[in-house]
Amino acid sequence: MSTLVDFPVRPEARPYLDAFAQSTGEPEWLARFRRQGLDRFARQGFPTRRSENWRYLDLQPLERQPLLPGTPGRDLPLPTELLLEGAALRLVFVDACFSPVLSGLSGLPEGVWLGSMRAALAERRELVSTIAVDSGAEHPFAALNAALFADGFVLDIAQGVTLDKPIEIVHLVGDAKASLHTRSLVNLGAGSRATIIETYAGTGRYWRNDFAAWRLGEGAALARVALVEESDEAVHLGEVSATLGAKAKLDGFVLLLGGGTVRHEASVALTGDHAECGINGAFVVAGREEANIVTSIDHAALGGTTSELIKGVAAGRGHGAFQGKITVREGAQQTDARQTSRNLILGRRAVIDTKPELEILADDVKCAHGASVGALDEAALFYLRARGIPSDEARRLLVEGFLREPVEGIADPAIRDHLLRRLSLRLARLEDE
Q1: How many separate domains does the chain show?
Q2: Is 286 within a domain?
Q3: b or e along 275-309 (b: 16 or more beta carbons within 10 Å of the residue's beta carbon)?
Q4: Residue 131 has pLDDT above 80, yes or no
Q5: What's the pLDDT tens digit per position in 255-278?
Q6: Are 66 and 45 in contact (CB under 8 A)?
Q7: Higher-confidence residue: 1 or 419?
């Protein structure tokens, strides 16, 4: 690897440098992009708890037992219980590689390009090359993703085109015992609209490292839902970088229901006047699971709006965390930003950390944030038990009622009902963990 880097390398990064193999036949800009990502990761290495942005997540097990990129797995049976009924378009990835056999892309409307990142490299080269700009240079795992990504998806919608039905993206892992790096791009032209649901699931031990760039033109609207139900041994690190043009609207939602170590990070820049951003989510942890939701919202233009609601539940020895920062830059007057974190602790050994944060550099704004961590309402629990509802069922009803609020804010009824079913099934198992 001395031909790739000529500076000291962080020891935990060495196995990934040694595993790096330059792909043949790729364009020079992509090869250069990969090398730059590898260099950044080699210099930065794994973040530690000393980093404020990573203080609530323990990555030492991954450092001690590296998970290197693996070979693509064979097609797996689709888990029908995880699929959205009525999805008109579906892309399926197995072990980070597109599976044409399991996917369904017939009937794409005019003005819509949807396909794998590998196909886009040939057919949408000018568009895809913009991912180099969105490499997340300050984030080590986005840099590693830039070097190692195998595939991903690209959605490119022309100006004024509306997709009436959701697009479903399914990411599956079949006991890969490897790291899986996917990189995706969503580009919405002015006035276009789309809804995406992404589902992540797998079996065995693996590390999923997912990065996505979203670009919304003037007046465009994107609703994106992520459902994470990884295996108990999995590490899931997902990162989104979004840019909103004038009057663009982003509705993002994440539901973290499974995975040994899960982190979902969203960075949103409102660069056009009167853009709107809604980032909501919920997590459930039990056993020794860890789940983090991290958000960074940057208001850089006039009249932007942000609304955040994150709810969490921790049982057993589970550890959940929310870190959210909203920045209102000088000149971003008339910004309206609200951030709320509410959490339930079920048991003495469970932990939830929450850190909402505002940085306001403008004077004509309306901004507020708040956080709470508490136990179940004993009075409400007593009320239900007094009416003949068993204790375990009463607890489940109260927890489900607590978590339904952010889910019920999802506009698409099919997606909303699908997530509520998955949530109910997860909570039914909670008492056993």
Answers
A1: 1
A2: yes
A3: bbbbbbbbbbbbeebbbbbbbbbbbbbbbbbbbbb
A4: no
A5: 999 999 999 999 999 999 999 999
A6: no
A7: 419
